[in-house]
Specification:
The complex is a heterodimer of chains A (about 425) and B (about 375). Chain A contains 16 helices and 15 strands. By secondary structure, chain A is α/β, with parallel strands linked by helices. In chain A, strand 1, helix 3 and strand 2 form a beta-alpha-beta unit. Chain B is about 75% helix and about 0% strand. Chain B has a two-stranded antiparallel sheet with strand order 1-2. The chains are: A alpha/beta (about 425), B mainly alpha (about 375). Chain A: This is ABC transporter substrate-binding protein.
């Protein structure tokens, strides 16, 4: 009974409802003779420098806040958590192995899709649980590791956000009004995959859709004007972009300067990742439709869901940022592991093995300030995805999403065991 | 081996070095700061640097595109493993070396028409071309790359054996050490041969070399291909260690820079230097991350120290007549010499800064 109270306290702390925690007496009640005293050693790899740090630092801050809240609630089964952060760079496998050699109990990250693909098979052979923060490539659990045991991912993956984007575009503009589309996507596997899923989905949803332009600017390109000119010439009904971070700022600023937004409706899967960099006039001129993967702090509305508000206040006061979906991917990866481990401790009556923790993560449901999440049985995290109209809020001093639609994961992802392309192909 | 007579001291050092190399897997078990995969990766890159050094040291050609051969070897391995399910390590290695040799033959043929800066830029351009091609091909996995996990065992088979992850890593490492030793011996024979002497002559003065009847173009091309073979072998080893190949870590031009840097860091006037440089640089890059967020600056600082303090590189400075030995002797004779060294370093820095200011001035047209 007392242990169950400890578990509830941890889950409540991670959802951010500190008022539910009580006086902290559960600290002692959680300790069990079979649970070691020493702290839990956790490792996170993320981009701490370079352009990708726009996402990487958000993930890091999210993970740190989760660890702080876990420790505030007395730890996992009374064990405090310690988080060690390293820059992922190109050394995903080495970083993971280093964590394993240092005796880490759990590892989190990375951000990069290719790095995640390189690392996931290593996780399976080293048998220390890793909960990926991002690395959202669809093939990870469809081709690279088809039967995972120790490798998990918290972030919604590419198919989910592109199918959401296609549904959102059709819903807002009307199926009859989407006849031509264009794409400006980053020139690597992620950008190409995203546009191909978007095309496939929107053709199913809106019928006869013609692709009038496809452009692939390099990552961190400083000039996107040729792509913008093409879009201006073709005037497609919808322009889809999976640009993220600094590339969003470049694309949207240059598009605004060349009046692209008068000629097309921009729909972007990760435009909101640049939330801390966009300026008011660009946001207002663009009136873009943006996704926010697994989290948008204004939804569920903060007057009905206090944890969201508390998270935003914490992120603002500690790091002076508006938390994005990448903040939640760091937070959620830690929360998924901690709540599942707490559950396993309660069941086995001692500290669980890596295998027991992994089993406990499968099909595990838990709360964070973004609402309810499930770690699906195919090891893919499932959360609502959010789409809304990007507009400027002078209260926040940053863009916000208005008129937000939420998509249940079951609407935008294939059932476990079915490949995405086959699933979309089966729509009628 | 003929021509390879070691003094007693050299023989002892060689044995100690070999023992140390073979002890790395045990050391890695004792301390988390030494990681087998990092040392292993360092050896692989170092082997590519040994190949590059044939050009750098003897023909005085600076290639900025040697990652192309490293990457070709790595991708040949990954392609065979992931698309054709080839699991035999020997086949993978052989195919990688052949593919890289072929690539070097083509790139070498096209870029060796030029010397100096134009040669360097051409190799850079070909390297980047290859990178862009791979990046754009979804068959090659684009930026996500390809796994090297063939067959039912999900890994290349060493001597036909399917081993568990730890045994695979250790056995592959021992094999890499053997490859490295054999490659060094081959390189030693090569540079001590008449062919090596001819390359030296070409490096000193191309025109005169041609006058005395050396087929300069053909010899340089041959040296280029040989260095490509080393790169291919190194790339294949890297691919089998990482078991996943992506364009960034194997083909991007910064990797070419790293390979060049390894040769200079270890001492490009020596045989062993580039290999040592490879291990040291990869280790530095990895260990640096644990200490500071600005770990990229670390390699820059080390390079500055090497260029200003130890221009002969790590191995070069430790050799007879090297910088370190001479300084140690001076210090033993008169410890106060440290003061004059500091003054010397300060004045060198001052004059370097002065030169830099003058260059900037002349560029801006300010007198």
């Amino acid at each position: 009974m007392l242990k169950a109270a400890g578990g509830t306290a941890l889950a409540a702390a991670l959802a951010g409802c500190s008022s539910l925690l009580g006086s902290g007496e559960e600290d002692d009640s959680q300790s069990s003779s079979d649970v070691p005293d020493e702290p839990i050693e956790a490792g996170l790899q993320t981009f701490t420098e370079g352009a990708a740090a726009v996402l990487g630092l958000q993930a890091q801050y999210g993970a740190q806040l989760a660890v702080e809240r876990i420790n505030g609630a007395g730890g996992v089964a009374g064990r405090e958590m310690k988080l060690d952060v390293v820059h992922e760079g190109d050394s995903h496998v080495e970083n993971y192995n280093q964590f394993v050699e240092e005796g880490k109990d759990v590892t989190f990250g990375p951000i990069s899709s290719g790095g995640h693909a390189a690392m996931a098979p290593e996780v399976e052979s080293q048998e220390v649980v890793n909960v990926g923060t991002d690395g959202t490539v669809t093939t990870l659990y469809e081709e690279t590791v088809t039967d995972p045991t120790y490798s998990f991912r918290f972030q919604n993956y590419d198919v989910m956000e592109c199918v959401s984007a296609a549904r959102e575009a059709v819903e807002r503009l009307g199926a009859d009004n989407v006849n031509t589309i264009a794409g400006i996507n980053p020139n690597y596997a992620f950008g190409k995959d995203e546009f191909s899923v978007f095309k496939r989905a929107i053709k199913k949803l809106a019928g006869d859709v013609e692709v009038v332009y496809e452009g692939y600017p390099d990552l961190m390109a400083d000039d996107m004007s040729t792509h913008i000119t093409e879009v201006n010439n073709e005037q497609p009904d919808v322009t889809f972009s999976s640009c993220w971070g600094g590339d969003v700022t470049t694309l949207m600023s240059q598009a605004a300067a060349n009046n692209m937004f008068e000629n097309t409706q921009l729909v972007g899967s990760v435009l909101y990742s640049a939330v801390n960099d966009l300026s008011q006039d660009v946001v207002e001129q663009a009136s873009a439709i943006s996704g926010s993967r697994n989290f948008y702090w204004g939804e569920p509305t903060t007057n009905r869901w206090q944890p969201g508000k508390k998270l935003r206040e914490d992120a603002k006061s500690k790091w002076d940022i508006v938390p994005s979906a990448h903040f939640m991917s760091g937070y959620g990866a830690v929360a998924a592991w901690a709540t599942a481990t707490q559950k396993a401790v309660d069941i086995v009556g001692g500290w669980p093995s890596q295998e027991q923790i992994a089993k406990s993560l499968e099909g595990h449901g838990f709360y964070t300030p973004a609402g309810y999440h499930v770690m699906s049985e195919d090891h893919q995290g499932m959360s609502n995805s959010y789409y809304g109209k990007m507009s400027w809020s002078s209260d926040v001093g940053a863009p916000v999403l208005e008129d937000v639609n939420m998509y249940d994961p079951r609407e935008v992802s294939p059932p476990p065991g079915t490949k995405s392309a086959k699933w979309i192909g089966s729509w009628s | 081996m003929k021509g390879l007579e070691l003094t007693r001291k050299q023989a002892v050092l060689t044995v100690v070095g070999l023992l140390l190399a073979f002890a790395v897997p045990d050391l890695a078990r004792l301390t988390a700061s030494v990681q087998l995969s990092v040392v292993h990766q360092g050896l692989a890159f170092g082997l590519a640097a040994v190949g590059l050094n044939l050009l750098l040291r003897h023909t005085k050609l600076v290639s900025f595109g040697h990652a192309a051969f490293f990457g070709t070897g790595a991708y040949a391995t990954a392609l065979l493993a992931s698309k054709l399910d080839v699991a035999m390590m020997s086949v993978l290695l052989l195919a990688a070396v052949l593919a890289a040799g072929l690539m070097a033959a083509v790139i070498g043929y096209l870029s060796l028409r030029h010397t100096g800066l134009y040669f360097s830029l051409l190799t850079l351009a070909f390297g980047q071309l290859l990178y862009a091609l791979v990046q754009g091909q979804s068959y090659l996995g684009s930026s996500d790359g390809l796994p090297v996990r063939p067959g039912e065992a999900n890994q290349p088979l060493i001597f036909g054996l399917a081993l568990d992850a730890d045994a695979y890593a250790v056995l592959l490492y021992y094999l890499t050490v053997v490859f490295a030793v054999v490659s060094l011996l081959v390189m030693y024979r090569l540079v001590k041969s008449p062919f090596g002497a001819a390359l030296d002559a070409i490096g000193q003065d191309r025109t005169r070399a041609e006058f005395i009847g050396i087929p300069v173009q053909r010899y340089v091309w041959l040296a280029f291909v040989i260095s490509g073979l080393y790169g291919g072998l190194a790339g294949a080893i890297y691919a089998m260690v990482q078991q996943h190949v992506r364009p960034g870590p194997v083909l991007y031009f910064l990797q070419s820079g790293d390979i060049l840097y390894m040769a200079i860091l270890g001492g490009f006037q020596t045989l062993l230097g580039p290999l040592v440089g490879g291990v040291v640089l990869v280790f530095l890059q990895d260990a640096g991350k644990d200490f500071t967020n600005y770990f990229d600056a670390l390699t820059g600082i080390v390079l500055l120290v090497i260029v200003f303090g130890f221009p002969q590189g790590i191995v070069g400075s430790l050799e007879r007549g090297g910088n370190v030995r001479q300084r140690a002797r001076e210090f033993a004779e008169d410890p106060s010499v440290v003061g004059s060294w500091a003054a010397g370093a300060a004045s060198a820095l001052r004059s370097a800064f002065g030169d830099w200011v003058n260059s900037v001035r002349s560029m801006l047209g300010v007198r």
